[in-house]
Amino acid sequence: MFGMDASFGVVFIVIILGFFLPFIINISLAKSRGKSVVLMLALTLIFSWIVTLILAFMPKVAPSAE
Hints:
Elements: H1 6-33, H2 37-47, H3 49-57
């Protein structure tokens, strides 16, 4: 398609997933860790997968008993 072979499409999809996947993962991680989702997404824009690793190793917030 448009003079591009199939391998270019695979590389393009991997690059797109590598960029957007941390944002998707960090939304749920930030909520479960009790962190600001907006702040974590802003940090993900700058630091990408590093923020994902930091959030993954943080302890989960225990639900409050009210």
